[in-house]
Amino acid sequence: MAAKRSASADEAGARGGGLEHDTIAAIATPPGRGGIGIVRVSGPAATTIAERITGTRPTPRHAALVEFRDADDGLIDRGIVLHFARPASFTGEDVIEFHGHGGPVVMDLLLAACLSFGARMARAGEFSERAFGNGKIDLVQAEAIADLIASTSQAGARSAMRSLAGEFSRHIEALAAAIVDLRLYVEAAIDFPEEEVDFLAEGEVGARLDAIAADLGRLRRTANQGALLTEGFELVIAGRPNAGKSSLLNRLARHERAIVTEVPGTTRDVLIERIELGGLPLVIVDTAGLRASPDRVEQEGVRRARAAVAGADHVLFLFDPQVSEDPLSAAKAEGLNMGRLTLVENKADLSGLRVGWVRDGPPPVVRISALTGAGIDALEQHLKRIAGYRDDEGGFSARRRHLAALAQVAEALTAARQAMDEGRSGELVAEDLRRAHDALGEIVGAVTSDALLGEIFGRFCIGK
Amino acid sequence: MAMQFPDTFDVIVIGGGHAGTEAAAAAARMGASTLLLTMSVETIGAMSCNPAIGGIGKSHLVREIDALDGVMARATDRAGIQFRVLNGSKGPAVRATRAQADRVLYRQAVREALEHTPNLKIFQQSVVDLVIDADHVAGVITQMGLTFRAPAVVLTTGTFLGGRIHVGLEQQPGGRAGDPPSNALAERLRALPLRVDRLKTGTPPRIDGRSVDFSVMEVQPGDEPVPVMSLIGSAEEHPQQVPCHITHTNARTHEIIRAGLDRSPLYTGVIEGTGPRYCPSIEDKVVRFEGKQSHQVFVEPEGLTTPELYPNGISTSLPFDVQLALVRSIKGFEQAHITRPGYAIEYDFFDPRDLYHSLETRVIEGLFFAGQINGTTGYEEAAAQGLLAGINAARKVAGQPSWCPRRDEAYLGVLVDDLVSRGTNEPYRMFTSRAEFRLRLREDNADLRLTAIGHELGVVSDGRMGAFLTKARAIDDLRERLRTIRVAPGSATALSVEHALGERISKDTDAFTLLRRPALHIDALCRVLNLPLAALDVAQQVEIMSKYDGYIARQDEEIARIRRHEQLMLPVDLDYARIDGLSSELKQKLTHARPENLARAAHIPGITPAALSLLLVHARKHQASA
Asked: Smallest CA–CA separation between A249 and chain B, in Å?
């Protein structure tokens, strides 16, 4: 990957112009929506990337039907490539669009191919930001861009938080700790050679490097298989015990996943269901009923439910109209975010009221019967609408971003090992380790040199 | 006696320490009419702490000062009595020079340099007040009521502001053992809207060498050939060379220290200032690293004409009776006579986040701070800041924009940027690991990085520039020459290189690229290629450039991005609190730091790419609507 990257850097250096000199790529359509998916690339290397993927140099403003191939010449998809030449394009830079079949796997492979040919993942709102930087957007639109970046960075933070929960996060933390520990010795040996510190022998540095690389390799394999990272729009079903949350989950998932009983507090843990709603991947989380309970197990369930609600893209707050509690106050009391909330009135089969859309909100209200399925259509339409409007910064991108960062970590660790094998001096190994650490910082947050020095002073007695 | 001094100056520098002397000399070299005010002409260039210059990270700063024609490196070459290269077995980026200096010779060399600098006058008088017109500094008032006027003032007061010296539970005001603090000035400065806090540092007891048994200690001689500090210096300038010695503390020393902790100002809460984590007192080391049976003590000579020794490693503020007992418990020190007790000193420092990168304060125009007053420790860190403040004070008076090297250009840039963007809560010391572009910030290329810039700024003399250009051209010529020599596998050249190298050449390449191989050295390569041997510094430079080539190229991309971001100025009146999408923590940090451009914003801990995008868009909006 390093060689390909430097090729694109030459290209970037030769072209110049514009605000940024690197090339960015992102999936421009929401995951799963519709039959066509678009991957957009902008920057000086865009046309080179198109040439690498399609085998021919694209002609400006002409749609061509081509085959998309990855770095190993594997066929990804057949689709259309479009070239908008600078400076007349939307961003003011060379822009390439790959129109392919909209499934998440194809889009993911296409984006991965762009990255392997030298593009980097675009940040939230970065295409618009470049457009603004190149004078393609006026002041009013700039307001909108600022808002977009603000809101998507929050969505991105939510999805990153979610994908960093659990197993994956533990692996990443262990990896970061191992790299910090190794850097500690390598940097201390450079900055404090006169101290009586038991520095690592060269062989031990190499052994630790190999162990870290092996752990990283395992982690990347698992992560690439998607086992550790959730993706998709995360919808959480919350509400009081016995409001019918598990019935709704079953209704949406169309099979018996949750155990449904008439005993309040039946769902003691968090159930997760992945479904597709019109091609849109949804992660539905059914939670324990929110209530104070003396039962220790149920208390834990409630705690997890609240955590799930905090990380959700959207919450369906389910309520039973026969219970004399005002659902809006109850939702507010639970600290739910009004902007990401829909109130769902259940048990229309008992109340006899007309199912379907009740009012626009905020928060909007829908009436259903989870038992009979009445009103579910209206709810599904509503869900498609809110999930479909989601930008490209959801869990899908967060996952891709993490994988890209891990690939960079791996590349830097390989370089460090190679520098050692070639007998290069210690500060070059240290430089590769710094790069590995920086790349990991994209996931876990950057570690400052001062923090690293703090670790060194805490570990070793240093200073005359 | 109220009197206005008849001459008006461009720049007034307060303080004759390492920051003050470089500041005054730099401003004067820039052509500014400069006045150095010091409490005592005798202590100009005094080394208040250990008698050494350089060390890892620090000598990098000294070389940069030298590349900008400063005083420190040349004074070190004339005063150094033991020179060593540290990290000699590691790569060139982290190699460093350290010199023991004779205090008297060093002071003389600095004073002589100042007294031979045109445009520079010295006056002995303590400053008690600043003259401030609205929000602009206009001069200073001294103890005897003399007013000196100047539109730029550089304050380099070291540990003298509100200085308080601790020995055991006894304490007294003082700026350095034997010298009074500047309390009147400290009070005036505390009245300014600048954040002020306390720091602490310490020194060990000094010992009479005649009472020491060196025969039981490890000898540490200087290196051969004797290293040189200045890039244009030579070993012939060095005075007589002497060795240092190394001894160790032991279990009994540690027992004595533990028994005295109840009378330690550090451990009884008398000292509030924060000390450095890396230069702890001996009592700190014994307490924090309980498992360590012994600590090194470097026994450093204070000079050629005095038997006094500086036992580096046992800085302490324990009561004198404990100091004496602990010193005498150390091997070789059994009969030691202490000439001066060790002490800790607490002093005021100003939060450097209230400075611009020019080291000018944000609240009083024309007022610059340099050295320990900004929370740093070390002669080299102080001198480097002094140089920068002197340059910028002169530029300010001349109506020119300020200058500060970038983080990828100089350790000086790293130092100032760390201080101004992040502040510090302990005395700040330079380490190479603070520099993310460490591989390019080397001792050996300080002149290549800074001398031409310095000449353009007017701080580097034509003479030095001329010598530099000759060297720089020779480096370019040799590098280009090597680049044009093709080495094809199987060719006669390749075969002889393979022979010299003991490795196979399997790819068509050029001689410069070939030199990247760790086993190949430039003189061997030049011999094989029948090229004339270049001067040592030129040949070394070309070899280093080749060995680091791939790494430097990778950093170039990162630096190019940073430089573009440097062009994106952030308006000073940008209201960060009102930018949606920034976390409240970031809003607070940005409001405090008020970064001048996007590159500096990017350096604030916790900043994210999305936050940078937001700043960019808001900055553009702000510009468009202004």
From this structure: 33
